[in-house]
């Protein structure tokens, strides 16, 4: 949910607070990627049991942080020289951006690092593995990224506690691929609020077509 909040606060509210969900090709593919990862035993040695000579390779590990009020299921945890790093699996290809990945993925990975630290482990970096391109992106947990991660955690909690759904994004390229676009209706809401012309609807079925209804005043309609 922290990832979703960083991507779009309205999306996180719809899923976490209102319990909305809709499948898409992306969500189905992503679940398939994690099906193999989740076969691990979920076992991780205690911090005091790890020596500098140990090599750690633990899959599907669930950890929580009382300080942050978070729980996470980590795809993979690797470690050597007494330090651990979370490895988060992603569907698709690595985006060719300066940071190496999109901000929501970086924040999500950093949150996993913070949870590891709160459980007594040493963790200063992690990695994102992109399944389709088979590329791994190294991510340093510097002060700037840690601040973004904490801001996302606290922001999500405040938005959820506030009880008011955040406004939709405006003319954002994130919306058409979002699985909840048909529930969120960002363009339609912005049209009624600000008069912004909506983009064409995305139709899942090839044989289906959207129906647009344009109506003027009541007098004109009659």
Low-pLDDT sequence parts: none
Architecture of the largest domain in CATH? Alpha-Beta Complex
Helix residue percentage: 25-40%
Can you tell me the CATH class of the largest domain? Alpha Beta
**Strand elements, count:** 5
Largest pleated sheet: 5 strands, mixed
Q: Report Rg.
A: 21 Å
Summed up, the domain count is 2
The CATH topology of the largest domain is what? Lambda Exonuclease, Chain A
Broad structural category: alpha+beta
**In oligomeric terms, what are we looking at?**
single chain
What strand order characterises the main sheet?
A: 1-2-3-4-5
Number of helical regions: 8
- Provide the residue-averaged pLDDT: 88
The 3D shape can be described as elongated
Strand content: 15-25%
* Secondary-structure element pattern, one letter each: HHHEEEHEEHHHH
Head-to-tail CA distance between termini: 48 Å
Write the layout of secondary structure elements.
Layout: H1 2-7, H2 9-17, H3 25-37, E1 56-65, E2 70-80, E3 83-90, H4 103-118, E4 125-130, E5 135-140, H5 143-162, H6 181-184, H7 186-194, H8 218-221
């Amino acid at each position: 949910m922290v990832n979703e909040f960083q991507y779009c606060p309205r999306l996180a509210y719809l899923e976490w607070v209102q319990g909305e969900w809709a499948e898409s090709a992306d969500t189905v593919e992503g679940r398939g990627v994690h099906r193999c990862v989740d076969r691990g035993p979920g076992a991780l040695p205690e911090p005091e049991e790890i020596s500098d000579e140990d090599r750690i390779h633990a899959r599907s590990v669930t950890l929580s942080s009382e300080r942050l009020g978070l729980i996470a299921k980590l795809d993979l945890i690797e470690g050597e020289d007494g330090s651990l790093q979370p490895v988060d699996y992603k569907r698709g290809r690595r985006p060719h951006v300066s940071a190496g990945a999109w901000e929501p993925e970086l924040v999500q990975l950093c949150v996993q690092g913070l949870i590891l630290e709160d459980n007594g482990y040493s963790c200063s970096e992690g990695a994102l593995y992109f399944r389709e391109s088979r590329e791994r992106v190294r991510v340093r947990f510097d002060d700037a990224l840690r601040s973004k991660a904490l801001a996302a955690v606290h922001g999500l909690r405040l938005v959820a506690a506030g009880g008011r759904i955040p406004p939709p994004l405006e003319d954002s390229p994130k919306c058409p691929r979002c699985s909840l676009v048909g529930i969120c209706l960002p363009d339609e809401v912005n049209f009624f609020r600000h008069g912004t012309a909506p983009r064409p609807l995305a139709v899942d079925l090839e044989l289906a077509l959207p129906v647009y209804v344009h109506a003027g005043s009541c007098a004109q309609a009659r």
